[in-house]
């Protein structure tokens, strides 16, 4: 039975009413971001889908493609408190999470006090995350999954909403470390940022090198964004879409026997990938003004959801087969 069939008429009417308002608010946020970020419409849409679905995003691309500018702009437009961490080889976990310091009071008594790190923000920009050591990268694991951190045995809750938008340089560049698989799995989407086309780059030249430059303005607030995220989870999903998600994710695992690259998969996505697709197709549908996701949403989001959750065998890499080739083959088999 589909999710839509389980909803009563009153609840569907409520969802429709909320969705009509939400579509306008999301469109206003997109337009505000587009006034600052040029030529990266697909990247902006996927970043918004990530946040609307309540997840974290990994933006991958060479330096100079406005990844950092996009995150800063989104923080302003969405009305979130934003902090930035520049990841470097000498960065320590305490530089992210915070640390305890021993303080002495006027009466001579001593006590530890926790000094919060920059992770205590609604939107954390982890800039060039793969330039820090794996030990430091893993400091984000608990925060990204459980929305709190544990320091000296004490739990410290993070603000709501809490999102990590990390930028990553291609692994081929010097001074980079691959992210651990467990951390990659925490990112809802991997968003590839490519070079802009000629017309977009021309606009960038004209718009950003003059006396005046466009600045981001707040459109949403944190509480409003959380209401949109709750609405996304209430969007009904048809049985056909659910089955397509299950078929796609399960076919991307070793020994699935599906597709012409089945024997080239070393390890594949777990159930978290299915959850990611379920949430992101809902968010994409809502962002485009639709009340239910379609198979096209699954096709559109398959690569950013799956590509960082898969690895190919050494033989496949030697043959020049890429993860996106495997995903494209599996997507082409979706009925």
TrEMBL record:
Belongs to the MoxR family. Residues 53-197 form the AAA+ ATPase domain. InterPro entries: AAA+_ATPase, ATPase_AAA-3, CbbQ/NirQ/NorQ/GpvN, ChlI/MoxR_AAA_lid, P-loop_NTPase. Keywords: ATP-binding, Nucleotide-binding. One of its GO terms (molecular function) is ATP hydrolysis activity. This is MoxR-like ATPase. It comes from the Bacteria. Pfam families: AAA_3, AAA_lid_2. It comes from Oharaeibacter diazotrophicus. Signal peptide: none annotated.
